[in-house]
Design brief:
Blueprint: H1 30-44, H2 49-52, E1 65-68, H3 76-86, E2 92-95, H4 97-103, H5 114-117, H6 119-130, E3 146-147
Parallel strand pairs: 1-2
Antiparallel strand pairs: 2-3
């Protein structure tokens, strides 16, 4: 298969995100990327968490979704789609990496590793399990770093940091 990298060592599929206006394609190779991603999404649908999300709550499952602004490994629009598909908005807690980055510029730009490097999300998970899913604590209480539950609207942009 030929390389689809069309932006140096990266790619640009030039696709609009949810609720955004149409995009006029001016990026060489973007259409091939869009076709590739559409086929891949279709092929993976049977294993997609979004396809099964609507079955979680009706079966009495205890749900806690932790996600972070600007996550490059699990982009915010994908997590938002999961929350919408499963009716899980009130079970989501959102770490505002923009505020974290402003208060501590030495923090990693890779927000995906937040759970490994912070005590607060692990405390939230432990409390959730100890209460058998009945209690979802706000990791920073009345602070601004965590939205528990997330404050709508759901993030539909990638919110990547430079």
């Amino acid at each position: 298969m030929p390389s689809l990298l069309n932006a140096g060592a990266d790619f640009n599929e030039n696709i609009p995100l949810r609720d955004k206006p149409p995009v006029v394609n001016t990026v060489v190779g973007a259409m091939k990327l869009q076709e590739y991603f559409e086929r891949e999404e279709w092929a993976r649908q049977p294993g997609s968490s979004i396809a099964y999300a609507s079955y979680l709550l009706p079966r009495g499952k205890k749900i806690l979704v932790q996600f972070v602004m600007g996550d490059r490994s699990a982009p915010n629009p994908m997590t938002s789609a999961l929350l919408r598909a499963g009716g899980l908005v009130w079970y989501a807690t959102y770490l505002r990496w923009d505020i974290m980055f402003q208060t501590n510029p030495n923090v990693s730009w890779d927000s995906h590793v937040f759970i490994l490097n912070m005590v607060e999300p692990r405390h939230q998970i432990a409390t959730f399990f100890r209460s058998n899913g009945a209690t979802i604590v706000d990791p920073d209480g009345t602070g601004q770093l965590w939205e528990t539950p997330i404050v709508p609207p759901l993030p539909e942009d990638t919110n990547y940091f430079p």
